[in-house]
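Quick one, T. Sequence first:
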Amino acid sequence: MSIVSEFKAFAMKGNVVDMAVGIIIGAAFGKIVSSFVGDVIMPPIGLLIGGVDFTDLAVTLKAAEGDLPAVVMSYGKFIQTILDFIIVAFAIFMGVKAINRLKREEAAAPEAPAAPTKEQELLSEIRDLLKAQQDK
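Structure tokens:
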């Protein structure tokens, strides 16, 4: 078997295709979550904490000299990234928790017992007849 045919067999397996689809959807979902956090969640939080924007927090380690740019440690961006992660993780946790609750409610709903089959009914009748004969 040639390398090309082996690769084709590998690439066409269901797991590889499913994984590729998952990665593409995950990347698109990541953009949605980033927009949700950055554009919907963070503005009210920023308003609640007095309009502080962490991304502007930085320490200049070395000032700009001529054509050389300043050396800046932007620790505010790091703090903002951590807050974004915590918010995203909490939102995902709440979503998974809601999905699990729905699954538990589905599983908790008892199914109606199955009706006895014809064979079971006949066996029950035979048992009852034999019991009635013994009692006589």
